[in-house]
Specification:
By secondary structure, the chain is an alpha/beta fold. The protein has one domain (4-329): Aldolase class I (TIM Barrel), CATH 3.20.20. 30% of the residues lie in helices and 19% in strands. The strands form two sheets. A twelve-stranded mixed β-sheet has the order 9-10-11-8-7-6-5-4-3-12-13-14. It has a two-stranded antiparallel sheet with strand order 1-2. Helix 3 packs parallel to helix 5. The chain binds S-adenosylmethionine (SAM) and iron/sulfur cluster. The site of iron/sulfur cluster (SF4) has 12 residues, from loops.
């Protein structure tokens, strides 16, 4: 099946699905401590999510990433993972997950058995105290256990770390060495201005260009054209043989090659991470749409995909550029 092409000539082959807005952590850059979560009636059932994913697969989606909130805190989420895993085939090539790792040791083997081959695990620091401070409620041991369980189950693991000025900016040297030791790739992410949080984002923003030059004092970062279909720019670390990626939405426009759309757990499809326009699929699903009607609605939504985001940090008011939290769309 040839994929849907958006108005700017980009093939849309990647669907990210936030399966829940809930989470067992409260990372400072992502959520406020006292978040209000959505009522159950608004959340799509796992069957509804599977049906919607199936429509995207029919229309040429080759990769689906489950995210959240924390995807592994959704009850029975493995039912959805198995259903989607059963859809893997010639065109639909990859089912994957972004997780904070706290529940991963319980699920790693089942994920592998369902056809998941790679997972992204968020880990912003290796310092236990700092980890607890950054996640507000987290214990690093649980996430580390999850990472090692995933590796033992044969999953490739990539570590995602959000860079925060004055918080974890000195940790990346050590993390790169640790990832090398354990055979993990590392991907650093700039803080994006999404959703009200308790702190001041403009103060925490750290351009990754600075981090990269600092890392270059110790490590040899070799250019590579490796791509995961995402916005990260990758280098091979000569000393470890592993990769390091940089996602720089704030300092570099990553929209030209955007191949993705994002579905929330309420069935809202966002065509761009950094824009508010959306399409409501819960209404379509619950209104008794046939598969053909569902497909038509997907095609119509993608026809509205904008050219790009306009993230800027409003320093005077420190208002987020996009009012919804990252946990709504899952990054
Ligand atoms: N709970 C899972 C996790 O933490 O990996 C999945 C959802 S989380 C929203 C997905 C990714 O978004 C994580 O890697 C997280 O660090 C990142 N993230 C959250 N808020 C962010 C922000 N304001 N700017 C940049 N990245 C953010
Ligand atoms: Fe939860 Fe992930 Fe957001 Fe942290 S980044 S609060 S783990 S959803």
């Amino acid at each position: 099946m040839s994929p849907i092409i958006d108005p700017f000539g980009r093939a849309i082959t990647y669907l990210r699905v936030s399966v829940t807005d809930r989470c067992d952590l409260r990372c400072v850059y992502c959520m406020a401590e006292d978040m209000t979560f959505l009522p159950k009636a608004e959340i799509l059932s796992l069957e509804e999510l599977d049906r919607l994913c199936a429509a995207f697969i029919r229309l040429g989606t080759t990769k689906i990433r489950l995210t959240g909130g924390e995807p592994l805190v959704r009850r029975d989420v493995m039912t959805l993972v198995r259903a989607l895993g059963a859809r893997l085939g010639d065109d639909f090539r990859e089912l994957t997950l972004t997780t904070n790792g706290t529940q991963l040791s319980r699920h790693a083997e089942d994920l592998a058995a369902a056809g998941v081959r790679r997972v992204n695990v968020s880990l912003d620091t290796l310092d236990p105290q700092k980890f607890s401070a950054m996640t507000r409620w987290g214990k690093i041991e649980k996430t580390l256990d999850g990472i090692f369980a995933a590796k033992a189950a044969g999953l490739a693991v990539k570590i995602n770390a959000v860079a925060m000025k004055g918080v974890n900016e000195d940790d990346f040297d050590g993390m790169l060495a640790w990832c090398g030791e354990h055979g993990l790739d590392l991907c650093l992410i700039e803080t994006m201005p999404m959703g009200e949080i308790a702190g001041d984002r403009a103060d925490q923003y750290l351009p990754l260009s600075m981090v990269r030059s600092r890392l270059r004092q110790r490590w040899t970062l070799q250019d590579t054209d490796y791509r995961t279909g995402g916005p990260a720019r990758y280098y091979t670390v000569a000393e470890t043989g592993r990769r390091i990626g940089f996602i720089t939405p704030m300092t570099h426009n990553f929209c030209e090659s955007c191949n993705r759309v994002r579905l929330t757990c309420t069935g809202t499809l966002y065509m761009c991470l950094g824009q508010d326009d959306s399409a409501d699929f819960r209404h379509v699903l619950r209104g008794g749409a046939s598969d053909d009607q569902l497909d038509d609605a997907v095609v119509a939504a993608i026809a509205r995909k904008p050219k790009g985001h306009d993230f800027i940090i409003d320093r005077r008011h420190d208002r987020p550029a996009v009012s919804r939290h990252m946990s709504v769309t899952g990054g």
